[in-house]
Every structure is written in C-alpha cells, then in structure tokens.
Specification:
The protein has 772 residues and is α/β, with parallel strands linked by helices. It is 44% helix and 12% strand. A 7-stranded parallel sheet has the order 1-5-7-8-9-10-11. Strands 16-17-18-19-20 form a 5-stranded parallel sheet. Helix 12 links the parallel strand 9 and strand 10. Helix 10 packs parallel to helix 11, helix 24 packs parallel to helix 25 and helix 28 crosses helix 29. The chain is globular, with a radius of gyration of 26 Å.
C-alpha cells in the first residue's frame, strides 16, 4: 500500500475507556453488592449498561473500532487470571461455589483467606492484582467474560476489537505463590500458557472477532535475551495458529527498544506503539527495522495519561512520518484512557479559558477522530480544528498562571546545603530518643482514619451551603477528639489526628497551593472501587499560608503523646496529579518541595516533634528503563530532602511508601535521609524488611503488619508472627509497628479491632524480647 492509500485508510480507535460511568455508577453498584443492598443480577445489569454507554459514546464520536474486554469489576489483570484459570488454591472453593463472590474474594480477601498481592501497573497509580503461580499451576481457558463482552458490542452493530493482557506480560507480572521458592520464574510456564491463549483466540474468532489486541507493555522495560526469546516464541506460536483472529500486539508507556525487531518479525498482523512518551525512539527503531510492510500500525499520538489538549499539528507531523512505514496507519491514544477522567465538560468550577486547555477521555477521542480525518483527507478537512487548537495552545503558553517570577527566583537560589540535615543520622537518632522517649517497638498508624458517612455528609453539606464553616469545623474537632481518644485508650505510642478534614492526600494540599486546579468530577480509578480526583498542576507553585498546622496543633493539645504532622511529599504531589508538561519534572518538583518546606518548618515551630512526609509514589514514578533511573532518582530524592532538611536534629522525620516493588529503589530510600520509614509489607510477607536488611539500611523502619486494603481483621497472633519475621531482618531498636497504609477506606469496627490486635502483638513481642 502506498503512503497515500495508507493515509486514506486511517481509522480511529482506543485501547480502553474509563469504567466507572459519569456518576461512578460501577463503584456504587459494586459496593452496594458487597453490603447486600444490590444483588448479582442488578450489578451485572449496571455493568452491561455502562459498557453499552461507553461504546456508543465512542462510536458516536467517530471511533471506528471500539475495545471490548477492557471493562472490569475490579482489575483487568485479575480478569486475566480468571480467563486462564490461575486461581489460588485458597480461593478455589469460593470461585467454584460462586464465581462473582470468588472473584471479589481474590481481590479483597476474606476472614479466612488473604487476597492476592496488589502493586502498581508499571509507572501509573493504577493498582493490579499480582498473579500467583507455581511449578504446579495448571492453566485452563475460560473465555466466558471476553466472549460475552464481544457479543454485546457486535449486537449493537459496532466493529469491536477484544483487548487482552498478553501472555508474556502476564507471566512477567506474576510472582511465586506462597510456599514456592522465591527464585521460581513464572516465565517458565509460557509453553503451558500458550495453548490456553490459543483456545481463547479461537473462541473469540468463533464469536465474531476480526482482530484481537494483546497488550505487552512489559516489553517496553529492559528485557533479557531469554525474555525476548520467550516473546518471539509466544508470537510465533500464536501467529502460527490457523483458526484465529488477526493479532494486534500493543505496547505503551515507553519505547519498545530491543523488542521491536522481535515483534516486527513475528507472524502477527499489527503493532501498536506509543508515540507520545517515546516518539523519537520508536520512530527511529521503526525505521531501523524497515517499517512494518504488509502490517497495520496503530500510532498512539494522543497522550492517554495526561489531560492537556493535544498539539494537533505536531501529532499530524508524526503521523505523516509514519506513512510508508506500514501497510495501514491508524490513530489512537498512547494507552488505555482508563488513566484519565471521563469528560472535561462536566467541570463547572474551572475558568472557561483554562478549561479549554484540558482534554479528558471524551475530548481525547475527539482529538483522535480529528487526527484520523486529517491524516486521511488532508489538513484542509480539519482547518477549523487546527486553528482552534493553535489558539488554545497559545492561550496556555501565555498565561500568567504558568509563570510566577518570585517562585522561579526562589527555586533558582536553592543550594546543595538546603537539602542536607544539620547533623548525621546517629546524632539525630540519639537526640530524638531523648526527646520522644518511645518504648521498644513503638506503635503508630500511617495517618488517616476512617472517613465516615457523617464526615462525607458534613463536607457535602458545607459545599451545598446547608451548614456554615463554623458548624463544619465543630464536626472536625469532634472527630479529631474521638480519634485521639481511641488511640490513647488502645495504647498507640505516636498518634495522628486522623485527617478528618482532608478529602484526599494530594487534592487537599493542591487546593491550598497556587498553580493547582481542582476538579469536581475528574475521577480516575486507583484500584477496585477506589477512585481519586487527581488535581491539575498547571502553573508555578507556592504556599500562601499554613495548610495543616491548625488541626495538628489542636490534636496535640488533646494528648501528652506525640502527634505526627502529616504531609504529602513532592514526588507524590506530582505523580498523583496531572502534571504540567511544559517544563522538566525536576523543576516542578523543586517548586513543590519549597512550598512543603515552609509547612514543615511551621509545624516544627508550632511544637510538632514528629513529621511524616509521605512518598508512596517514589517507586511508582521510576522510569521503566534503567538508563533513565539515575537522573530521576537524583531530583526525586533531592526534592524530599529539600522539603525536610530545615528541621532541628531532635525533630523526627518519617516517610511512608506502599504497594510497589521497593527492592528496586532501596538506595534511593536510603538517600532520602528520613529518620523512619513505614512500608507496606503484610501482603508480601515482610519481603521489604529483607530487602532493607540486604542493603544495610541504617535507619528505623516500620514494615506493615496489617493489610488495610482488605476488610479482614488480622488477629494478634498473625500480627505478632509478621512482627517476628520483621525482627529477623531489622533490629528491635530500629523496628516500628504499624499498618501497611492509611485507614481512610476502612470502617470503624474493623479498624478498632485490627489496631487493638496490632498493639497487643507489639506488647507480646516486647515481652518476648525482654525475656530473651
């Protein structure tokens, strides 16, 4: 096909779409099902209607080929485990008794069976359920869910493409099941898994699929020769099937690198590449392999992870370069639109001029359609759209919001000394022990306590004008009092105020900093039914006034025990926002760090002796390629130290991280120079404690003994057993006892019981240590 005919054949498509619905109908239906207010048939009906609505929105916007299989009740990787029959033995009976309840048991656990481990989907804030595999795993095909979704879309008269997690990525994301040697490599199961994928592909072909997309994002990471050979073998075998749909192998989030020649040679009909995060690298690599003659190329030129309006002319130039490198060039977002909110037009509180800068999922589909039209028919066919786009881009570039001279001058004046504590850790530790007088194995929580219906109602009433600020603040004071009283009665050693006043750990601060925009309806799935509204970091950042001092000092006035000041760190403020793309991330991180430094210093001046600066996104934001790690970790750790280094030696700085592969960044954790770090460890059975010990981590650490992402209540014996495992790696004088994460999403009954058991476990182990 010539370049001209390839352009004329251009079509618009996406890899996935937000699942929740305009009013988060899916979240409400699932949580209603868990609480017994919604039955299974009603939940399935809600899901069916949401899928229909999504597909019709896409089709009406001009998307030529809609995705199926991207919709999920909880997580698409968990759906893949069900599709291939990789059900943990402890959940098998539950799945056989009731498939839906068993599915949710794997995700959330039960009182008798722990859930699957949860971690981050590459470098996003989406969490997936980690497959558990062993040498004895026997895969079996169950394509029921995938076939049903395809059938629903086809019945609507739509052209549909099922989207599946590819077999290589699935195995590379998996871990050894409990009791299996840690060095077991799930990729050794590839030959056992491929026939199951072959059966699913056959089932989808029989159901009417012309194309099936197999997502292989793991191939954009550094891969060994053995892993690349496994990918070659997988697509040689699947491509060699006689009764199958056409195969589109998709990559995203970074450059495909050494995997590109492997997939280009494979007997598959198409490749999908990211031309936003790695445009130049993927373009060069594609040219180096001689293009994709006879194949379909789906070009991800619209950023599927951020919310800024696309530069249409720049994207058209990229698309034009691709013509002639493939038999057919289609236009798409760079990845699933799962990672952005649904519709920017729902926002009413953002200034209209600024709102034009934003593109959520519905606006991105319009951009994709416009680009496909321009690629196929020439720029004259989209002249009006191009003119409007140029005006929007110019408006943003020239806005005073994006450039504050005072902020830039302060940032430019930062020196290396600003990022160093005044004394080394051993001297600080001695000063802190003398000042705080904490027991061996001190107990604490991560920060938040349950956000009750009463709290959410009070916040909604304040927004709606049903109560005034005085009434709202009285409710917050009462909640803080209850939280402090409970912690004192339970026997916790370092207390928190519970964060009753906070809507979200990033949004709360964003709403008080200049340069940020907050949305009312910009919900994005983090995990399961947990949705967040990432704020939009649009301009230069500063802190007009103190943000947390008032409520922290009020809580401290209610107790003689230390109360932690609670802040969100600069990297997490970036990672869990839609960050500006018009300057280097390091510059933005430094601005945020300086604003937070002011807050840390004000907390200390108000009498706060323990200050926690959370950085759960430090590992999440790690680039996918090792060669990009040093630059990122240098500015990320510098930003944390810039936030925290201005305090006295006897002020104890904590940080917190959760649900990520910490072994990859232990040196960076050390470089933060925090006095205490708390980390998720319950689901991973204290793996992080062993990783810290292997590194020789010299400071204090609290690997979690209570998994807060499950409704089950761990017994005191269970928590004590985990604590003893932690002591095998970390000396008692440096070990803290805490949950994995904050308690915002939990209910009070399970929170009370779990924390009482946690304190009991700590006391039991203290007694054992004193007797030994």
């Amino acid at each position: 096909m010539t370049a001209k005919s390839a352009a004329a054949a251009a079509r618009a498509t996406v890899y996935g779409y937000p699942r929740q619905g305009q009013g988060r109908e899916l979240k409400k239906a699932i949580e209603g099902y868990w609480k017994g207010r919604v039955d299974a048939d009603a939940l399935r009906a809600t899901a069916t209607e949401l899928r229909r609505t999504n597909w019709m929105q896409l089709a009406e916007a001009g998307i030529h080929e809609v995705p199926t299989g991207d919709f999920s009740y909880y997580d698409h990787v968990l759906d893949t485990s069900v599709m291939v029959g990789a059900i943990p033995e402890r959940h098998r009976a539950a799945v056989e008794a009731d498939a839906l309840d068993g599915y949710f048991a794997m995700a959330r656990g039960t009182q008798d069976a722990a859930p699957l481990e949860m971690t981050k989907w590459f470098d996003t804030n989406y969490h997936y359920l980690v497959p558990e595999l062993s040498p004895d795993t026997a895969f079996t095909a169950d394509s029921t869910q995938q076939v049903a979704a395809l059938g629903q879309a086809l019945a609507l008269g739509l052209t549909a493409r099922p989207v599946l997690v590819g077999p290589v990525t699935y195995l590379l994301l998996a871990k050894s099941a409990p009791g299996v040697a840690a060095d077991f490599d799930p990729l050794t199961l590839l030959d056992r898994l491929l026939p199951v994928y072959a059966q699913v592909l056959t089932d989808l072909r029989t159901a009417g699929a012309e194309w099936v997309q197999l997502d292989e994002p793991a191939l954009v990471q550094d891969r060994t020769a053995a892993e690349l050979n496994a990918a070659a073998r997988a697509y040689r075998d699947l491509g060699g099937l006689t009764d199958r749909p056409k195969l589109l192998v998709a990559s995203y989030f970074d450059r495909l690198g050494d995997a590109l020649p492997v997939l280009a040679k494979a007997p598959v009909e198409g490749l999908a590449l990211d031309f936003t995060e790695a445009a130049a690298a993927n373009l060069d690599a594609l040219a180096a392999v001689g293009g994709l003659p006879g194949k379909r190329l789906v070009a991800g030129v619209v950023n599927g992870r951020n919310i800024w309006v696309n530069d249409l002319e720049k994207s058209l130039a990229t698309l034009g370069t691709l013509l002639g490198l493939a038999d057919r060039v289609d236009v798409a977002a760079s990845c699933s639109l799962l990672h952005v909110p649904l519709d920017a037009t729902a926002e009413r509180d953002i200034e209209p001029q600024i709102l034009r800068w934003l593109a959520f999922a519905r606006q991105k589909t319009a951009e994709i359609v416009t680009l496909a039209k321009g690629l196929g028919g020439g720029t004259d066919t989209i002249a009006a759209e191009l003119a409007a786009n140029r005006a929007v881009l110019a408006s943003r570039a020239g806005s005073a919001l994006t450039h504050d001279p005072a902020v830039r001058a302060r940032t430019a004046a930062v020196t290396a000394t600003d990022g160093r504590r005044s004394q080394p850790y051993p001297e600080r530790a001695a000063a802190q022990r003398a000042h705080l007088r904490l027991p061996l194995l001190p107990t604490t929580t991560i920060g938040s306590f349950p956000q009750t219906t009463e709290l959410r109602t009070a916040r909604a009433d304040l927004r709606a004008g049903r109560i005034d600020s005085a009434g709202y603040e009285e409710r917050i004071r009462a909640e803080i009092g209850e939280v402090i009283s409970f912690q004192e009665k339970t026997g916790l050693d370092v207390l928190v105020h519970g964060e009753a006043e906070r809507n979200d750990m990033v949004q709360y601060f964003a709403e008080q900093l200049t340069g940020y925009l907050a949305t009312q309806h910009g919900w994005v799935q983090s995990y399961g039914t947990r949705y967040v509204r990432p704020p939009i970091l649009a301009g230069d950042i500063s802190r007009p006034e103190a943000m947390t001092v008032r409520w922290t000092t009020y809580a401290q006035s209610l107790t003689t025990k230390p109360v932690k000041g609670m802040l969100t760190g600069p990297v997490t403020m970036l990672a869990w926002s839609f960050v500006r793309d018009d300057q280097p991330l390091a510059d933005t991180a430094r601005q945020v760090a300086l604003a937070l430094r002011d807050e840390v210093n004000d907390l200390e001046a108000a009498g706060t002796s323990v200050i926690q600066v959370d950085e759960p996104a430090l590992r999440e934001t790690l680039p996918l390629r090792a060669c990009d790690h040093p630059e990122y970790l240098a500015w990320a750790t510098e930003a944390f130290r810039l936030t925290t280094a201005g305090v006295r030696p006897d002020t104890q700085i904590h940080t917190h991280m959760c649900y990520a592969e910490f072994g990859d960044i232990v040196q960076a954790i050390d470089d933060l120079d925090a006095d205490v770090i708390s980390l998720e460890a319950a689901r991973s059975h204290m793996q992080v404690a062993r990783e810290l010990a292997g590194h020789g981590y010299p400071r204090e650490a609290g690997p979690g003994v209570y998994d807060i992402h499950s409704p089950r209540v761990p017994g005191a014996d269970e928590a004590a057993a985990l604590l003893r495992r932690g002591l095998e790696a970390i000396p008692a004088e440096r070990l803290w006892v805490n949950p994995d994460c904050g308690l915002k999403t939990r209910a009070w009954p399970e929170t009370r019981a779990s924390l009482e058991n946690l304190v009991t476990a700590a006391r039991t182990v203290r007694t054992e240590l004193s007797a030994s």
